[in-house]
Amino acid sequence: MIRTHDSDEVIEVRAATLADLHRLAVLCGQLGYPSAPREVQERLGQIQQDEDQAVFVAEEVGGQVVGWVHVFGRQLLVVDRHAELGGVVVDEGHRGRGVGCLLMERAEAWARARGCETVYVRSNAVRQGAHRFYEGIGYDRIKTSRVFLKELGGPR
After folding, report:
1. Which is it for the CA torsion 145, 76, 123, 5, positive or negative?
2. Whole-number Å distance between alpha carbons of 45 and 24
3. Element (H, E) at 69
4. pLDDT tens-digit readout, 23-80
5. From the DSSP assignment, how many helices (H) and strands (E) are in the chain?
6. In terms of pTM, does the model score above 0.85?
7. Nearest to 107 by CA among 124, 85, 91, 129
8. Could you give the C-alpha distances from 128 to 103, 119, 123, 131, 152, in angstroms and in order?
9. N or C: which end of the chain has fewer CB within 10 A?
10. In whole angstroms, what is the distance from residue 32 CA to residue 135 CA?
């Protein structure tokens, strides 16, 4: 158990489990990605089978999950191996209390333990509060990108 940096709230950061599905799904929705618990169950199950990925939750005393972070290792041809965030969210009622910092510290520790010297974060251009958060904990804005998507449909 760790006290958050900015309050007296006691939070534990631990690996996500299937028991967290409902709260994970609620938080996915708060992040802007509405998801049913069964969808989260399938995704989390796949992530848990891959040792190059992890999902950690922030849980307050009493068992309420108030945030999560998904981190994964990535190797590209053009840059050295690094970690990247698949997402991070703190419950709307718990923001600004240091919970996000605890989650990011845990993701960074996971990355260091796997030999990663950098962590990449991608954040939607409209998430100005998130941008201030990342910059406030030492992340540098390195570029602006466009994201493209093509639906491929089901198996053929």
Report:
1. negative
2. 13
3. strand 65-74
4. 999 999 999 999 999 999 999 999 999 999 999 999 998 889 999 999 999 999 999 9
5. 4, 6
6. yes
7. 85
8. 19, 19, 9, 5, 31
9. C
10. 21
Q: What is the dihedral of CA 106, 58, 27, 90, to 10 degrees?
A: -70
| Residue 79 CA to its chain's centroid (Å) | 22
Q: pLDDT digits over 111-132, tens only?
A: 999 999 999 999 999 999 999 9
Using DSSP's 3-state secondary structure scheme, residue 18 falls into: helix
Of 24, 28, 29, 26, residue with least CA distance to 14: 24
Whole-angstrom distance, CA of residue 44 vs CA of residue 32 = 18
**CB atoms near residue 126 (< 10 Å):** 9
Contact criterion met (CB below 8 Å) for 56 and 106: yes
Query: From the CB of residue 61, how many other CB atoms can be counted at a distance below 10 Å?
Result: 10
- What tokens does 51 get? 């040792």
User: Which tokens go with 43?
Assistant: 């995704």
The encoded tokens of residue 142 equal: 């390195």
Distance between CA atoms of 144 and 20, rounded to whole angstroms?
Answer: 34
CATH node for 2-136? 3.40.630.30
The residue extents of the domains of the chain are 2-136
